[in-house]
Amino acid sequence: MARKAPQIDSRTAERIAVQVQQLLKQYNIGETQSLQGTSAALVNIFARFAEIIIERLNQVPDKNFLAFLDLLGASRLPPQPARVPLTFSLAAGTTVDALVPTGTQVAAPPAEGEKDPVIFETERELVVSTAQLESIFVRDPQQDRWSDNSLIINQANSSGVAAFRGSDRIEHILYIRQDSLFNNSALEEVRLHFQIAELPEDITDRIVKWEIWDSNTAISFSLQPEQENTENNETSPLILDETDNLTKSGNITFSHFCSSFAEPQHLLNNRWLRCRLLTPITSAIEQHLPQVTNLNIQGKFNHQALKVQNALTNQVSLDLSQPFFPFGEKPRFGDTLYLDLTENTAFTKDGKIKLKVNVIDPTDAGIELTEESINPNLRLQWGFWDGEKWTLLGTSTRNIDELQQNTSNNNFQDNTKAFTIPGTQEVSFTLPAQPKIKTIGGIESVWIRVQITAGDYGKEASYIPDRDEDGRVRRDADTNDVKYIFKPASFAPPLISSITADYSLDYSATSAIPPQQVLLSNDFVNEQIDLTSNPSFVPFKPTQEAKPTPKPALYLGFVPPANGSFSNRPLSLFFRIADIVYGEDLDNPTPNGSPQLSWQYWNGKKWTKLLVRDETENFTRPGLIEFLPPADFAPREDFNLPPRYWLRVQWLTGDYEVEPRLEQVLLNTTMAVQTVTIQQEILGSSDGNENQQFQTTRQPVLPGQQLEVREPEVPSALEKQKIVLEEGEDAITTTIADATGRPQAIWVRWHQVKDFYQSEARDRHYVLDHLTGKITFGDGRNGLIPPLGRGNIRMSRYQTGGGTAGNKPIGSIVQLKTTVPYVDKVINHQAAAGGAEAETLDSLIERAPKEIRHRNRAVTLEDFQDLAKLASPAVVRAKCVPLANLKANPWDTKPGLLGAVSVIIVPRSTEARPLPSLELVNRVQDYLETYAEPTVQISVVGPLYVRVDITAEIALTSLEGASEVAQTVEQQLASFLHPLTGGFEGIGWDFGREPYKSDLYRLLEGISGVDHVRNLEVVEGVDQANDQMNEMEELERTKQTGRFLVYSGNHTISLTFVES
Q: I need a labelling partner for 591 at 20 to 30 A (CA). Which of 59, 693, 790, 870 fits?
């Protein structure tokens, strides 16, 4: 706040009028009446004129003070122009690069209330390339992680993505393929046998995950109940791992292999077993990675409900779509049933077959059972063709005891009792040899044969001798011939409604085979293993970028221009770095040196160093990265993408306090500033007089102007040396007139100074008022007088602009004012910022004496505070704490650290708790270190805050507008408690100052609609308590420092109304 000059005379017009009337009464003896009419008017006019004179008199101290400052060379700072990154786009169909010259003008259309567009000019030349930035990835070999951050290309991510830390595990996968097993829908179990080279006993734990994968879907295996105390799910894939996550040799058994996949009509994708390493490959894990020396596979099959393709009775085909008689309606000895069960099945030795036969009850079919139809001697022989003969599988009988005796023969068991037990029963057996194909009834297949070898299912109708009760044959009395009686047929043939088969192969029935194919996928690199030449392999390997030392890196993938090659012109990328607010958790509280990054490109064989111009200062602030595409820039396949031209930036050494996060990356982008450039403006002609003054046509004049004077001859060697020292090698421009070599014009750039006090007679100096554009030259004693000449004083270049009008929002700067071939449009993906108005007189009066005091040297406590504010316009308040390192101990109440100085800064912000960004903290610290003694240890920190929560019960004057009163109370409290703009004077709260209850009563009872405050409670707290203490302890420690600021917290307002 600017100091107030003391008033010389504090009288107002009213007081002067009263005083004049009193004097008139004193000098006009006897006059007692008050002045009226014309007399009163004259007195008031006189009083008003006197007040005007007094007001001007009271301004004399300030004017004298300003004159003193002017004498010392102090002046108001010019407005600051806003800066913004502008992204240019080529017209559709353009196949060549475009060149945007320096100073290209782009405008923001006038906003509401504005008359003219706001002009921006590019700060440097930009090549708009037809190449495209397509991919941004992060690979972190130290943590074995990666990220795809391509979404931040052109699109802003408010929270940002880590520049060097991956969010996803780098995949390390072992793929195993064996189509003959894995694509078989009857596969029930798979057993992998691993031979693994011996590992140390102190192996680091690791986790692997096995999955079934068909190129689209992955289904994970769960631990079997023996390994994990879970209920067994009959259909979910299960795993029994004897290798303990591939740390030792053993078997891995996978159950219910295919039950989770819906069987497609046509299998388009092969199925794989894959093993994913879930533990990141760190340096400790890398030493204990498994080496597989041998791998083979076995399968266990279980075909369910196979249909009988064909059935024949004595080589006569049967209709299986309806109930059938397997041996005909009148079975006889030798009748045979042939069953074709080869649907989707390759029968093999030791295969287990289980037939499910649904036998119909004969009585349900109207067949009468008699004693003769139940022959206890019935025998059915089961067999198969082994290529030479029918091999016996087992014999079916009606007798249970005999049936049990037969079960040991090929594990044969017939629960149908030779097809005589109604209902669905099973016939099971194990194939003792490999079945062979045989042609029966014109059908070539593998057959199961069932033949009646003894007994029967009933007799044919016949005549039999008639016998008496004693069993004697009866004869005819006349002829003595034997008497015969008719005996009807007693057939009870088996009737079957359906037959299905289950076929299973145990491990004993299958041989171990090597995998058909083994693939390794490590860090997006796929490798096929040839097991025929070498069965040994390492399934999991470190990331390809882990050698020689693992360094995290950011990868940028470019698609080349249409012609396939990059032009020999620089490309420009803008990196928007997320602001890191002071107080966030630090990744490295004590950094080991500044971070060092290495930019590299792929040349087709290796990563090679790339020279770049880095304005981000190693990703610590937003800025441009420019590079020239090398001639040997080559494509590379990575991250499972088509070939890209890759750049990478590796984090080599050093530490970030907080690791950078990227919000946005923009190609074909350059910085623009809100200025208008004027070139070769003739200011006038020198007449040789002292203290000549000239004026620019546009104001204000921003810093960086170039004023030139045409001189009749080249300056002497001694003068030229000083000119070059002040203005550079190009300060003298000579135009050659003809072949004689005589110069036609000699233009010399003169040097701006604050005043002429230190200028000598031959010094080419001038003084410029940036706000008004007024230029003043010397008098020949202090500063050279420009030589006589016509039109010999010019501004070869200067810029005008600046102000808050340039702080334009995102997407508003879109009008190209300068025509650029092939360029179609332009836009700002980031809001313009940094624009500020010219300095006010009050600010000058406050700043200039401090500059005179500290002379840009940090010595005293006040010097550090003042220089901290000069470091950046964003710093609105600073407090210096000597002999303390508040970065190490923010609650230090007894500073005593010699050579240490801490500076607390508060940024300009409307947030309830203004906290500086880490970039602002570092900028201020660098600035202070520049102007302080080298031995001083400076720590710049943000402020401590105390939250103020208010609970108030307010009595209203009326119920009308109660909600508006409550809203106003909330707004007034938030505004009053703001640390920078709060308080009754709107200048904020001093460090350590807390609001009194009386302040809050005064505030609330001054709000319209509030009658009085019935109750008021104030509770203080802190938002982020330290991990080592609770909130109350931290609050107490914070208040004891006396260096805290208050801010508005959570308020509870209740309204009441009581009629008087």
A: 870
C-alpha distances in Å from residue 44, one per residue of 32, 35, 40, 112: 19, 11, 6, 45
**Which residues on neighbouring strands pair with residue 623, listed in sequence order?**
575
Q: What is the pLDDT of residues 206-236, one digit of tens each?
A: 899 999 888 788 888 887 665 544 444 456 6
Decide: helix, strand or coil at residue 628: coil
CATH number of 856-941: 3.30.300
Give the H or E element holding residue 86: strand 83-90
Give tens-digit pLDDT for 680-703. 999 999 999 999 999 999 999 999
In angstroms, the Cα distances linking 652 to 70, 588, 665 are 52, 16, 22
Q: Among the listed ranges 211-215, 659-663, 1035-1039, which one has the minimum average pLDDT value?
A: 211-215
CB 969, CB 1007: distance < 8 Å? yes
Q: What's this model's pTM, rounded to 2 decimal places?
A: 0.79
CATH number of 305-457+492-505: 2.60.120
Q: Any idea which residue has 């940094």 for tokens?
A: 834
Cα(306)–Cα(342) distance, integer angstroms = 8
Separation in Å, CA 874 to CA 259, 846, 956, 980: 66, 17, 41, 13
- Rounded Cα distance between 922 and 931, Å, is 15
Strand extents, DSSP E, 806-891: 815-816, 823-827, 875-882
Q: Return the closest-CA partner of residue 1011 out of 951, 969, 967.
A: 969
The rounded distance, in Å, linking the Cα atoms of 1 and 30 is 53
Q: How many CB atoms lie within 10 A of CB 803?
A: 18
Of 306, 366, 317, 373, nearest to 342 by C-alpha is 306
Q: Residue 876 above 50 pLDDT?
A: yes
What sign has the CA pseudo-torsion 243, 249, 251, 257?
Answer: positive
Band of residue 45 on the pLDDT scale cut at 50, 70, 90: very high
Element (H, E) at 1048: strand 1044-1048
Please report, to the nearest 10 degrees, the dihedral formed by the alpha carbons of residues 43, 45, 48, 49 taken in order.
-110
User: 607-609 and 596-602 as β-strands: parallel, antiparallel, unpaired?
Assistant: antiparallel
SS3 content of the chain, % helix, strand, coil (to 5): 15, 35, 50
Residue 424's nearest CA partner among 363, 502, 357, 376 is 357
For the CA atoms of the chain, what is the radius of gyration? 50
Residue in the structure block whose two tokens are 């007088």: 785
DSSP label at residue 475:
B
The CA-atom distances, in angstroms, between 324 and each of 52, 102, 313 are 129, 96, 10
Which bin fits 1014, alpha (ψ -120 to 50), beta or left (φ > 0)?
alpha
Distances (CA, A) of 644 to 61, 136, 789, 964: 71, 11, 62, 61
Which amino acid is residue 324, in one-letter code? F
The whole-angstrom distance between residue 28's C-alpha and the CA centroid of its chain comes to 90
Domain ranges of the chain: 13-58, 78-129+670-674+802-835, 132-167+555-667, 172-290+512-529, 305-457+492-505, 688-792, 856-941, 944-1056
